[in-house]
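Help needed: design a sequence for this.
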């Protein structure tokens, strides 16, 4: 059917429409059953579609333009469109420092030196600060129709053009809705049509869970919303009056405006009690815009905020100057120039083309259809494009979609894995500009984090901890002693963030970017250096640290503890950050004194430790784990996302990391399975990586299926549970990592291809060094590849297939270099040979020129 309108809104006319496919199945609204369709569901890898509306929030389908987002239930009678804005958070800028924290550093060090791990764990509570603030829902747009009994129901989310659709029939007419959120025009558009003239009848109103007021003036419905000045995390048990604190209008706290302008073809518009009613229209378009008073991380949104009403009105006026067809064209063109950069085909992608998405999810355990893996890969890219664009805020724990005032874990920036995982697909899927909001957050965290470093630790540089928010919160959380240090205290967030900074340079070779962010990297390194002291073995390691959210059994007390000197995650992040700073300083030919300091210190860093059981030790001793299959894998950071462990340069560590992964097990929360997919890909075991993906593709929250572990909701959102979007991004990155790697000194083609993906193709994946890769394979063998060089320089190829290239192992491209690590300290005599892949790898190097493509067979 045709949704485009050929003329500007001021002279709308009906356009010719195709008749809906008529399927003789009568459906009640609340018990709609499955049916078949014609060409609506002809793409099994680019569409989520269903034959029933969404009953709960995780059934609804997301749209977004990086800033303005909506969840669409697709209910025929009363449509609920839940709205979010990426800037709309509780709170305001405030000091998170704890001046007393510095007084406890010496005590923690002393206790650890005496083996009093539990007491040191308890002492860390004195170094905590306030909790973060929470991401907030804007409100809901309610569309009421008189369509209680319908047939031929269908709804979808088309990933190829980022549009959502709802279609159904009644005895009077066939009806359709199309929705999209446009980045170039800053609007959400909702287009409603009926196949018969004068049959588009509905009402529209705004509502919100927060303090709000609605008015109608000059043909525009306006909702003003006030965010709380404070929201306590949902996991805190606090009195109701303290959980959510909201000032009156004009007080502290962010404000937001949502505007709705209806444009109709025929019929009439009336308004009563701020409810818009449209009667006897042929078709209608609703344009929504939104803006907040957010004026940067360091200004009060209540007293120094922007004029959100004026911003939203300007967006609406600009949109009204364009036709619906133009708005849609602008939206699709903008979206596709990102989405179409990468294309994946895994085997026969049409196997389940006539099955709805929920049916495919349920049946996956039996058929392991690769098309739904393909769909999940594309969905992750769609979600990142929809929740992170240049100039927006970084994607949070739920992207930009949230329904609660006190959402799970505040829907904040969980900086010990989750916000970083959000951005893992950006570089390998060739969408580097989507990382700009993350880089902005990192820069601002360096500002607030410098205060934490100075006040809490008495150190130079900057740091950030477990949780962050829109206000660049960088302090350890825990309400000054309430939180368990195993999750409330972890000071290496700045070091992890800088992994993204330097990796962005390795993928894109942007010297200006590296120069701009070098002070950020150096500041993070200065803090980490300040945390180092020489241990009894003569190596430098952090004086104390935790392995995020995991714990060990204190040998002296038998109690759970989490703090020790030099945990493995700290060792990996320290070595990576200092080496990257040294490389950056050399590349920029700057900072001679700091380079000399790094060159002297790096060889003296504590190496990784390997236990008698052949695993990488998570802590400084081989402690008994409280939870052996814990979801966090921070001790294996050197394997992924870092580039310190691989089968060629560090075989002993490679085997130890593999042994550690086996010990962790294969089942976990949804996001952890996303990380495990990447880990097993880095271990060059595609079959095991696919096993993790298979575990992830487990229905969660379905009426007929009881599952309390991680998996996917009906709308394919990742289930921790509850919903966390990082699992979606993690598995997308993991699939890319199975097909292409570039962290271990070469561009590795099909490094972890599982047996089940015997045939397929991928286009547009990106490797470090700025190489774009197209590949085809059959019978699990590479048949051909096209490598396009965006930066020039040497391209180093690694493959299991012997290629028609001259062997030359002299790869000196610095963008493909690995991070050197010292030889590990090994306890006992474990077998560290069983686990290296029994394969032959061929390596080739050739010179490339910028913009040239090279065909490889």
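Sure. Designed sequence:
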């Amino acid at each position: 059917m045709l949704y485009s309108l050929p003329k500007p809104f001021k002279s709308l006319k009906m356009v010719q429409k195709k008749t809906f496919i008529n399927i003789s199945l009568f459906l009640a609204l609340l018990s709609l059953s499955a049916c078949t369709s014609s060409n609506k569901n002809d793409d099994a890898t680019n569409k989520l579609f269903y034959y029933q509306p969404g009953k709960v929030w995780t059934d609804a389908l997301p749209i977004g333009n990086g800033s303005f987002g909506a969840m669409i239930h697709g209910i025929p009678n009363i449509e609920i469109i839940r709205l979010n804005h990426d800037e709309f958070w509780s709170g305001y800028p405030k000091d998170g420092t704890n001046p007393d924290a510095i007084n406890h550093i010496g005590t923690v060090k002393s206790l650890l030196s005496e083996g009093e791990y539990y007491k040191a764990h308890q002492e860390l509570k004195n170094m905590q600060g306030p909790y973060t603030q929470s991401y907030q829902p804007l409100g809901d747009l309610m569309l009421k129709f008189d369509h209680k009994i319908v047939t031929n129901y269908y709804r979808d989310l088309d990933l190829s053009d980022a549009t959502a659709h709802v279609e159904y029939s009644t005895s009077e007419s066939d009806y359709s809705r199309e929705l999209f959120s446009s980045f170039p025009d800053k609007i959400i558009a909702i287009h409603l049509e009926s196949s018969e003239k004068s049959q588009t009848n509905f009402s529209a109103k705004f509502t919100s869970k927060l303090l709000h007021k609605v008015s109608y003036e000059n043909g525009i419905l306006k909702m003003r919303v006030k965010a709380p000045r404070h929201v306590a995390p949902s996991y805190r048990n606090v009195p109701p009056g303290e959980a959510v604190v909201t000032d009156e209008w004009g007080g502290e706290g962010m404000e937001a405006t949502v505007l709705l302008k209806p444009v109709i073809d025929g019929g009439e518009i009336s308004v009563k009690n701020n409810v818009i009613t449209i009667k006897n229209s042929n078709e209608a378009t609703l344009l929504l815009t939104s803006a907040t008073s957010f004026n940067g991380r360091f200004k009060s949104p209540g007293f120094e905020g922007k004029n959100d009403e004026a911003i939203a009105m300007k967006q609406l006026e600009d949109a009204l100057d364009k036709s619906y067809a133009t708005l849609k064209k602008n939206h699709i063109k903008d979206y596709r120039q990102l989405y179409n950069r990468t294309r994946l085909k895994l085997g026969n992608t049409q196997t389940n083309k006539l099955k709805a998405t929920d049916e495919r999810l349920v049946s996956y355990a039996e058929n392991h259809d690769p098309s739904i893996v393909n769909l999940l890969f594309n969905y992750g890219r769609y979600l990142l494009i929809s929740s992170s664009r240049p100039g927006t805020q970084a994607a949070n724990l739920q992207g930009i979609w949230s329904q609660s005032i006190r959402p799970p874990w505040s829907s904040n920036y969980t900086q010990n894995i989750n916000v970083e995982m959000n951005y893992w697909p950006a570089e390998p899927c060739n969408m580097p500009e989507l990382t700009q909001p993350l880089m902005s957050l990192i820069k601002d965290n360096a500002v607030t984090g410098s205060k934490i470093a100075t006040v809490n630790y008495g150190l130079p540089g900057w740091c950030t901890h477990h949780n962050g928010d829109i206000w660049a919160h960088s302090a350890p959380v825990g309400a000054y002693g309430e939180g368990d240090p195993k999750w409330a205290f972890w000071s290496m967030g700045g070091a992890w963030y800088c992994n993204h900074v330097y990796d962005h340079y390795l993928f894109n070779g942007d010297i200006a970017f590296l120069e701009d962010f070098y002070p950020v990297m150096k500041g993070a390194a200065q803090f980490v250096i300040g945390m180092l002291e020489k241990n009894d073995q003569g190596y430098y390691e952090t004086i104390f640290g935790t392995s995020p959210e995991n714990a060990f059994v204190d040998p002296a007390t038998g109690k759970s503890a989490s703090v020790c000197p030099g945990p493995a995650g700290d060792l990996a992040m320290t070595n990576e950050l200092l080496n990257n700073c040294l490389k950056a300083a050399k590349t920029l030919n700057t900072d001679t004194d700091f380079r000399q300091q790094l060159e002297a210190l790096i060889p003296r860093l504590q190496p990784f430790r390997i236990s008698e059981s052949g695993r990488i030790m998570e802590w400084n001793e081989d402690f008994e784990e409280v939870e052996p299959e814990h979801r966090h894998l921070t001790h294996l950071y050197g394997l992924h996302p870092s580039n310190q462990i691989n089968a060629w340069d560090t075989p002993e560590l490679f085997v130890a990391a593999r042994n550690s992964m086996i010990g962790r097990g294969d089942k976990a929360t949804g996001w952890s399975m996303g990380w495990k997919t990447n880990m097993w890909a880095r271990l060059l075991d595609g079959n095991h990586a696919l096993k993790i993906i298979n575990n992830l593709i487990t229905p969660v929250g379905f009426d007929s299926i009881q599952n309390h572990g991680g998996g996917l909701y009906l709308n394919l959102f990742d289930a921790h549970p509850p919903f966390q979007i990082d699992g979606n991004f993690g598995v997308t990155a993991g699939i890319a990592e199975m097909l292409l790697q570039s962290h271990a000194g070469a561009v590795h083609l099909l490094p972890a291809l599982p047996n089940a993906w015997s045939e397929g193709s991928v286009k547009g994946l990106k490797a470090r060094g700025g190489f774009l890769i197209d590949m085809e394979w059959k019978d699990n063998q590479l048949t051909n590849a096209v490598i396009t060089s965006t930066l020039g320089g040497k391209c180093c190829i690694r493959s299991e297939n012997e290629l028609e290239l001259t062997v030359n192992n002299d790869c000196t491209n610095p963008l493909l270099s690995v991070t050197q690590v010292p030889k590990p300290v090994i306890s006992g005599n474990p077998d560290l040979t069983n686990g290296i892949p029994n394969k032959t790898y061929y390596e080739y190097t050739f010179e490339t020129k910028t913009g040239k493509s090279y065909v490889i067979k």
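The chain is about 25% helix and 25% strand.
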